[in-house]
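Hey everyone, long-time lurker, first post.

I ran two proteins through the pipeline my lab uses and got sequence/structure pairs for each. Pasting them in order. The first:
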Amino acid sequence: MTLPRNHAQRVLLNDEVHARPPEPLVAPCRLSYIALICDAEAREASWRAVVTLAERCGVAPPEPGASHFSADLFAFRIKWEKHTEFVRYTFIVSGKAGGIVSGQAGGIVSGQAGGIVSGQAGGIVSGQAGGGAAAAPGSENEDPFRRTALQSVPDDWVATLPGQLMVAAHLALVADAGEDLVAVGSRAFARDVLVGSLAADASGAAFTDFRIYPDGFSRILVQDRSLTPWQAGRVAQRLLEIDTYRMMALLALPVAQSLAPVIARCEQELAHITAAMVTAGEADEPVLLDRLTRLAAEIDSRQADNLYRFSAAEAYDEIVQRRISELREERIPGLQTLQEFTERRMAPAMNTCQSVSGRQEELSRRVARATQLLATRVGVTRERQSQGLLQAVNRRIRLQIRLQQAVEGLSIAAVTYYVVGLVGYVAKGAEEGGAPIRPSMAMALSVPVVAGLMYAALRRLRRLVAADERA
C-alpha cells in the first residue's frame, strides 16, 4: 500500500514521546548524576565533550544536533541529556564493588570491565566485581555509598565539563535484605533529617535527606523489594528529576527576594503619585505624568528581566509535583514522605515567587491605569488650552477681516480715483481734438460707474473665494 507523503515533522514528533527513556537497572547498582546550567554555547560544548568521551572509548558518538545519548562505555554506562537551561549526565555502574578498574584510559578498559553486560531487557546486570577486590560481606548494606559510579569516569574528562554545577547526586540501588526500612535509611543518612517512603506500589523504597555532603554530592538510596529493571529505572529517574527540577525551580527565589523591596518602593511611589493627582493643578500634571512614565519604564524593564525566571519556576515546580505523584508513595511509619517534605519546604518558596510575580504584574497594571487617567487629564487640559487659543485666533481673524473690509473700501475709492483721473485725461484729449466733451462733466459722470463696477468685481471675487473654501 502506498501512503501519502509524510509531513516533514511526523517522525520527529512521533519519536518525541520516546526521547530520554529511563535506563533499566538491576540491584546492586550505582548511579552518579550531574546537572549543569549551560547557555547555548555551553550546551553545544557539552555535546562535543560527550563525543570526545565516546571516541576515547571507541564507541559511536551522538549525532550532531542530538539532545540525548546513552551508551555502554565498558567500565560504566553514560546517559547524556540536553535541556533548555541545563545539561545532565548520568553514569551507571553495576556490581557491589562499584565497577572500578584502573588502566591507561583513566579507569576505562574493555572486556568484562566493570561487570556491565547487556541483557534482553537492555539493562545492566552484575558481573565480576569490575576487576577489583570483592567487597566484604555485608559492606554494601553497611555503606551503600562507599563506592560511586563517578569513580569509574575519567577525572580529567569530568573536570572539563562546561557549565555551572547545579545538582550532583549519588544514587545507590540495593537489594532487599529483609531489614527494617527505617534502619535501612538511617544507616546511610542522619535519622533526624531522613525522608523516605515506599514507591511504585511498595515495590521499592526510596530514602534521601536532600543534603550536600563534603564531596559535593547529595545521596539517594533506593531499595529494590520487587522492582522490575524498568521500574527501578523509572524510580531512579524520577528521584533524580525531583532533585533537579526542585533546584531549578528555586532559582527564582533569590530573584523574588531581591525584587520584593524594589516592588515595595515602586508601590509607595505610585501611592504618592496617585495621592498628588487628587489635588494637582494644570501646572503639576506634566510633572506627575513624567514621574509615572519613568516608574512604568522601570517596572516594565524589571518585569522583562525576570518574567522568564518566574514562568520557568512555575513549570519546574509543576514537574516536581508530577514526578512525586508518579512515584505512588506510601508512608513508612516515622518518616516524612517526599510529598510532605517538598510541600513543607518548597511550597513556601514557590508561594513567595508567585506572590512577587503577582505583585509585579498588578503593579504594572495599576501604573498603566494611573498613566492612562493622568494622560486623559493632561489631554483635557491641553484641549481646553487649545480651545482658548483657537478662540483668540478667531477673534484675531475677525479683526483682520474687518480691517481687510475697511481696506477694501479704501481700495475701491483709490482705484475709482485713479480710473476717473484717466477718464479726465481722455476727455481733455478729446476736447482738444474738437469733440464736444466737457472733461469735468465726463469725470463726474464716470465716478459712480467706476465705483459700482469695482464694488461688483470685489463681491464676485469674494464669492469665488468662498466657493473654493467650501469645496
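...and the second, right after it:
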Amino acid sequence: MGHPAGLSTLFFTEMWERFSYYGMRAILILYMTVSIEDGGMDLDDKVAAAIYGLYTMGVFLLALPGGWLADRYFGLRKAVWYGGILIAAGHFSMAISFDGSFYIGLVLIVMGTGLLKPNISSIVGGLYGANEPARRDAGFSVFYMGINIGAFIAPLVVGWLGESIDWHYGFGAAGVGMVIGLVQYRLTEWRLGDVGKVPEKSIEGDDSAMRSRIRTGIITGIVLVGTLAWLWVIGLIEIDPVTLANVSAYAIVGAFIIYFFYLFIFQKLDTDEKKKIAALIVLFIFSALFWSGFEQAGSSLNLFADRYTDRDIFGFTVPASWLQAINPLFIILLAPVIGALWINLGRKNLNPHIPVKFGFGLISLGLGFAVIAVASVYVAENATVLPTWLIFTYLFHTTGELCVSPIGLSAVTKLAPKRFVGQLMGVWFMSTAFGNLIAGLIAGAFDEQVIANDPSLLSRIFLNIVWISVSAGLLLLAFYKPLTKLMKDVR
C-alpha cells in the first residue's frame, strides 16, 4: 500500500494488544456489577463505574512516565516489549480467582499499557519523513485500522467466554491475545530498521545502576499497590473509589499544568517550539472533552445495552458485550476511506487543518448522543429498544473518532520537538486519561435504582453531553485560523 514495511509489524502488535484491552474492557463493568451468584462482584453501579474510570484513566495516565522512560532510557522498542509482558501478566492475574488478583491484574495492565501505548505510536510516526504529512496521516489511519480489527474480534471472543461460560475465561483469553502479539513483534522487529532502537536522550551515569533502580522501582510499585488492593479486599483498609476518582481528576489537571510549566520554563524551547506546544495544549483540552463522551461506550452505553436493549434474535440472546464490536467494525470499514480522503485532499492542497478535523469530530460525537437520547425517551416509557439505536450512535461516534484519534496521534509527532516526542505522546494519552476518568464519573449517574425512580434522567444526561460536544466543536471551527498560525500551517 506504499507504506514502510515496519508498519505491518506495528499493525499486528497493536492489533493483538488492543484485542487484549478491548476484550477485557467489554466485560469489565458487567463483571463488576453482576451478582455473586452469577460469578460477578455485585458492586454498586456508582462504585463499579468509578473503578472503571480509575482503571481506564490509569491505562492512559501512565503513558507519560512510559514515554519519559522510553525517551531517556529504554528506547521506544524495548518499552513496547516490556509493556506487552506486563499486560499479559495482568490479564492472567485477572483470570485467577482469588482475593486481590483482580485488582493486581488491573495494576499490571495499567503499567504495561503505559509503556507500550505511547511508544508504539511514536515508532509509527518515526517511519515517515517530515516532508510527507499526508502520507503519515494515512499511515496512522492504516495503523488505526489494525487497532480496530483487534477491538472488533475481542468482544466476540472474550465477551462470549465471559458472559456465557465464565468471566475468568474471558480475562484469560485477553492474556493469550497479548502473548500472540508479543511473539509476532519479536519475530518481525527487524522490519523497523533503526527507528526507536535507542533513546532520543540517554540518561547520564552508570547504565547498569540505573537499570537496577528502575527495575527495583517497578517491582516495589507492583508489590505496594498489590498489597493495598489485597488489604482493601479483606477489609483492613477503606478506599472509596468515587472519592479517589474525584481526587484523581484534580491531580491530573495539576500534573498537566506543572508539566507544561516545566517544559516552557526549564527546557530552553525556541519560539517556534513554544507556539507548536501551545497549539498542542489546546488540542489536548478538546481531546479530553471528546474522550469524556466517547468512552461512555464501555460504561454507560454498555450498561444501556445490557439493561435497556432488546437483544433477542430468534431465541438467542446476544451478549451485551458483542455490541462493543460495532464501533471497531465501522472503523475497519471507514478508516481506509477516511485515510484516502486525507491523501486526495492533500494532493489538491485542500486537506483540512487539524483543528477543523477535531471540530467535526466533536460535532459528530454530539450527534451520536442525540440518537441515544431519543432512545432513552422510549426507555422512560418502560420499553426496551432495538440495538439499531446503539448502532447508529456508534456510527456517529466512529466518524468522530476518525477525525480526532489518529489525527491527534499524528499531530503530536508533527508538532512535538523530537527530543520530547515520547513525553508529549504521553501527555496526549494523559488527556485521554482525564476524559476516561470523567466518563466513569458520568457513568456513575446511570445507577439502575435511581433511573427506576426518575426514568427521564437517562435522556437528560445524554442531552447534556450533546450540548457540550457540539458547542466545543463549533468553537474549534470558529477559531481554527489562530490555531493554525501557532502550528505554522501544519495540517
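Reply from user beta_strand_b:
Welcome! Quick read of the second one: The radius of gyration is 22 Å. Strands lie at 312-313, 316-317.
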